């Protein structure tokens, strides 16, 4: 979630199985259990820009935000054991930390134009990916230890906007490229893997169409229409069974799309994206599996065309279910519970909402519970 800089809550994120929420506040950080709702850990550590959990273990990553000045940059990462309340290690980076992603094999620190990949078992630096452009650290890491993929916006700065919607899928076990997905015409705004690391959801800055690709082959399997008007996609999450995709935007509405078990589908672009499908699927060869100059390599690789079947027509599916926030105008991340038929939403004004989800008929989800994340009581 984008930090709400003027509020007590600076950041919030679900853990990998959506059982807990990690909170960064102006006074420290905390861990909140989703079901039953309640705070399980709190540390008064001062302003905390980012907090991420490793599933439901006691290992968390913490990015402190300097107290003063207000614009001070968060460039320090701490690995903390919450059970022992001790810092395992601390790392400093040459630029502000945008995001931290982790699973049981790898930890990725995302800066604006670089990704640092670590072996989480010993925090040894394995690889540095230099994107050669400012991507705001946009990335997604598959929770799976076997399908350990990192997805990020392809570095195409020297190509202008023409190739801005491509996504790189990088294998963090072999430290080589898996595929390049020509996902959108405009710049990618949001990325998400399913739990198994076999599906990748993408959304562009336009935010009208969401696409799902199989990994590691990069084939399109589903396409959904969020709406007709542009919107900023804030977060996307798959449910545990990979049958639903939850899409949160700045419109105050969260959409849920149903994923059918099907063979890879052919695609139909938005009208203004039709010409963009002439994009390379042979970038992998051009880049090389160990390229350290990704930006230049990609910029020189665009030019071949997608297979003809990739441009065949099909209509994007509409949402299966949706929910509306009580107070629009806030940033939101949402996820489907792994244990109950409900959708959980976390907002930047410090609220946690629970909605009932009809798994058979879909439709509008009904608000059933509402809590404050800044205390442990019900609001």
Relevant terms:
379 residues, mainly beta, five-stranded mixed beta sheet, four-stranded antiparallel beta sheet, 2 helices, 3% helix, disordered N terminus
What does this structure look like?
This protein is mainly beta. Helix content is 3%, strand content 43%. The chain contains 2 helices and 29 strands. The protein has helices at residues 283-287, 294-299; strands at 9-14, 20-25, 29-33, 38-43, 48-53, 59-64, 76-81, 86-92, 99-102, 106-110, 114-119, 124-130, 139-141, 149-153, 166-171, 176-182, 188-193, 199-204, 209-214, 220-225, 233-238, 244-249, 253-258, 321-324, 332-336, 342-347, 351-356, 363-364, 366-372. The strands form 7 sheets. Strands 21-22-23-24-28 form a 5-stranded mixed beta sheet, with no helix packed on it. A 4-stranded antiparallel beta sheet has the order 1-2-3-4, with no helix packed on it. A 4-stranded antiparallel beta sheet has the order 5-6-7-8, with no helix packed on it. Strand 19 (209-214) and strand 20 (220-225) form a beta hairpin. The longest helix has 6 residues, at 294-299. The radius of gyration is 20 Å and the shape is globular. InterPro entries: PROPPIN, WD40/YVTN_repeat-like_dom_sf, WD40_repeat_dom_sf, WD40_rpt. Pfam families: PROPPIN.
Distance separating the two termini? 22 Å
- Determine the mean pLDDT: 84
Helix content bin? under 10%
* Largest beta-sheet details: 5 strands, mixed
Low-confidence stretches: 1-6, 157-162, 262-269, 271-313
Question: Helix- and strand-based class?
Answer: mainly beta
Total of DSSP H or I helical runs spanning 4+ residues:
2
**Which strand order do you get reading across the main beta sheet?**
21-22-23-24-28
- What is the 3D form? globular
Estimate the strand proportion.
35-45%
If you compute it from the alpha carbons, what radius of gyration comes out, rounded to the nearest whole angstrom?
A: 20 Å
Task: Tell me the number of strands.
Answer: 29
